[in-house]
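1st attempt posting a full record on here, be nice pls
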Amino acid sequence: MKKLYFLVLTMCCSAWALAQCTATLTFTVDGNMVSASVTGDGATSPSYVIDWGDGTQELSASGTHTFADGTYTMCGGMFDLNNPLGCSATDCYDIVIGQGGGGGDCMVTFSPLISGLNVAVNATGTGAVNPVFSINWGDGSPVEATATGYHTYGQAGEYTICVLYTDSNKGGCMIESCQLVILSELQTDCTLAIEVTSDPMTGGTAVTATGLGAENPQYIIAWGDGGFPTIGSSATYTYSANGSYNLCVTFLDVNNPLACNVTECAMVDVTIDVNELNNWQPTMRAYPIPTEGTLNVECAGAMAKQLTLEVLDLKGQLIQTHYVGSNGSAVRQWSIDVSQLAQGIYLLRANSEKGQHTIRFVK
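the predicted structure (as tokens):
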């Protein structure tokens, strides 16, 4: 009877978009024990089911289950008993049980990019369902809660940079990778001038850089908020939170970076209006992860007039752009064809007139 119940739910999913029904699965992992609950919107007489992914199901909106070690796809579902063909929805996650504490399936890697006293880090990890990264620069500065960071050291010397990779789910990954870097002041004949204009009330910032002395010049703009640096001599950017940011531009000769490498920085102060911030606080998720060809995207709190979804590689290079208009809904959903992408880790960025929000996905 349980299998038949969930089969009806699965058959009904084709009508999800028509009825604007949604299901949300939340869960916590404690060792091999998982507690889960399902909530939903859009049904007048909702019925719920939890498929634990190991052949067992729970015909309830909440429950607990004990797993054997392994990897499972757990789903929460809802359909309307009054309209089962017009309102049904599922929400699924991949979970890893019994492989926490830095086990063999958890890995984190990074390669520091050094330019004089400036270091950029781009870390990648595998094995976590809900990954969390942090970077310790090894010089007593605050730890940054990001997978990608850019840091300027106060003086030359040896520093140990460590990246901690954890899973926000209990019992998930926890592993750290550290590397020793040796930094020295660069002697260069190159010169660099930068022009920065910023609107502190909106966070909109424009940068133009002019460098001299490089045969094969390259510019790298680090915005100072933990976001991905921009490659190019000019760019615009919108900060999404109040604060003071150390915006730095590095100019180097790709053919001879040791002879031509210079960095100039400027402080950008942002005092975004509180109402602007309240209008752009989206929550994004993408599934399934990893995906084979179609990536489903859900963005809550994204009632912006114009919304653009962008797919980028880990170098920040734009691969795909999808334009989305306003539909007046607080929760918006799309499907993106990524079948032509090579296997790897990518970025999914939402842009609106209110700001930006970025998450990662794996193909």
